[in-house]
Amino acid sequence: xxxxxxxxxxxxxxxxxxxxxxxxxxxxxxxxxxxxxxxxxxxxxxxxxxxxxxxxxxxxxxxxxxxxxxxxxxxxxxxxxxxxxxxxxxxxxxxxxxxxxxxxxxxxxxxxxxxxxxxxxxxxxxxxxxxxxxxxxxxxxxxxxxxxxxxxxxxxxxxxxxxxxxxxxxxxxxxxxxxxxxxxxxxxxxxxxxxxxxxxxxxxxxxxxxxxxxxxxxxxxxxxxxxxxxxxxxxxxxxxxxxxxxxxxxxxxxxxxxxxxxxxxxxxxxxxxxxxxxxxxxxxxxxxxxxxxxxxxxxxxxxxxxxxxxxxxxxxxxxxxxxxxxxxxxxxxxxxxxxxxxxxxxxxxxxxxxxxxxxxxxxxxxxxxxxxxxxxxxxxxxxxxxxxxxxxxxxxxxxxxxxxxxxxxxxxxxxxxxxxxxxxxxxxxxxxxxxxxxxxxxxxxxxx
Length: 448
Hints:
The chain is α/β, with parallel strands linked by helices.
């Protein structure tokens, strides 16, 4: 019998939060719908986190595989990051001038990322993709952009179409993910299904003179870590090269996580522009727009505007500096690779032993398991899988202290500090919960 966790204090805090914050949260993604089935949508309030574990305000301890939606690659409260930040914080917080630290971090960044000839720092992934589009438009003089169904590129109006939470029934029709997005912007968006060689060729052939950029996650970070088909990213690069189109890799999730140089290093494809954020500072707010010198210099020449009070914030730069230093010798990624591979295999073995049709897809640092009999190549394939079974299993795992995301679109993330004990507990929990899920319906699981 699995004991349901007490969430009394989280529920109380959420009820108070709803009086002062819409939905009771600061980000819609933090609102979970199935964790508190009796009380409706709720948010879990965290008291502290260290290493690979978190503790909520009710004292429940969790093995964390969300890791802040991916940023925490070294583990929560990394001692080296904390030490350097305490030292630097004595100097002040923000100056409205530059610091030598920006140059130092930019050069380290360049040594990691193949396409980073020049760099501009910003604060969030949303800002980075927004500015990358502006730079591409300034460089090419064209305005339309190609994006792919199920790819999320931040919360700004220009790309908040046909994301994981808003896909049109009609393939290729831009579908706004939110109210409040000007309808006029639909004319600037062309939507394609991902991993479809023929479809993107037809799109480019028809609209090449209007398209400024193709923006893509090199791995679908907001759709259960769907990898690209062999040669697909190179195919996009070749199409862009032939048609004066800027290829933008949104590496907000994959950057420094799939490898030291991100997905572009792993797959051997060098985009014209890239955006980074999450894992570069182990959880501190910072992002970067990087790219080829001839394109990025459109910003420095004042032809394209980029700015921000908190861009290149010293504290976040210190966190980036320390995080990159720890990644430099390869030990961080070796630990993640070993743990992630073992976890992926262990999960697959559990499902295989029970003769369940399951695809475990992605990479050791970010992956997901999907209940299906076929390969998953795009967002529509993902939506055609057994999402209900995933949700029911996740609900029971949560009550065993295993934090996967409630929604299958979010990958399972691993860090350099997940342990053998974490691995054993996670696999044992899945093995224990699976038979209960298979014998129950969702309302029965939630009443256990």
